[in-house]
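Bug #2210: token dump truncated for Acyl-CoA dehydrogenase?
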Amino acid sequence: MDTRLTAEQGEIRRSLRELLHARCGPAESRAAVGTPAGYDPLLWAALAERLGLPGLALPERYGGVGCSVTELALACEETGRVLAPSPLLATCVLTAPLVLALGTEAQRARLLPRIAGGTLTAALAVPGPDLATALALTGGNGGYVAGGGRAGGVQARHGPGGWRLYGQVDQVLDGHSAGLLLVAAHTGGYARARTRLFLVEGDAAGVVRTRRTALDATRPQGLVQLRDVCGEPLGPEGSEGSEGSEGSEGPEGGRLTEGADVRAAFAALGDPVAAVLAAEAVGAADRVLERTVAYVGQREQFGRPVGSFQAVKHRLAEVYVGVQAARSAAYYAAWVAAGGAGEGFGGPALAQALEALRSAAAEGIQLHGGIGFTWEHDAHLYFKRAAGDELLFGPGHRLRGRAAERAGLFAAAGRAGA
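Reproduced locally. Full output below:
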């Protein structure tokens, strides 16, 4: 693995940092999260038009730039530095890869160029225990279905007018504002429930969306209720699904893509998502460390800068080592995810990055003194990002436990103890 950035990667980071520095300062971010959408549409348009950020990891034939997860992770490291509120995670990291992997050519041609151009935002609505379960980050998703019981989650039924969806999803990233919803629903009744993905227009009849109060305001979430909503199945309805599977009846006797295929697509998406989130957390941790170092170099106590005290130096040195180690892990996870050289590195990298961010933010709050504990200061925003991501994508011990399970470490330990 060559850890040096290419000229193109360096230019992506430089251009994005310059734009965000000019357009996404603390005041701008606070104003953006207070809007109904939760982000600045003008900034999103600038990121799309000037840098092509929404289509960075999409193929050129669909209007994208044609880069890989590595470049997307580097870009998200920069957005993480300023905690930029944007639809990037929900649209480009979670939803677009599923449309690319499972959609028909007609669906890709219709949706992906609009996503790459920044004119269409999207959200992944996944009912069930949590998003981390569906992505197989904190456990296997072989038994995952998009419902919490006989009447829970989202159900889909096929009738004369097509597929109709009903139910609700409690926490959907950008679900209150996205123009397109990719909804996981279960079909076939309770006894033969299978998970399917359906495309739903955000303003379709029967869709009721409400923005929810979230711990991390820079990651707005919405409650999505579907009341007999028309949905378009993602993927070819005439396919036989995975080999050896039954499939369920679609229009004109066709068959929908099997639930096993959807779960496999979710599981394949888990590592790239974790790698991108890890890079984003590293950027946030690096920035809060920079701000803390600058502050303790100016704040004086007993006639000398606080940063000159040995105890403070030791504390910040530990944070620095943690951030650099997390950056190495995030870069490696992104490189592995981009090259398909293996799996299971995303979860541990994300766990390490979130721990580094939590540590950096906690030290920043303490070393800023009384001002660090106030709502007006930005230090608490970084701490909330770490805590919020742990709630959404799994705590560190579960992320590592899943990686150990995938690597067969628990089975090896059992054989050694036998």
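Output looks complete on our side. The chain has three domains: 7-88+111-119, 123-257, 266-417. Marking as cannot-reproduce; reopen if the truncation happens again.
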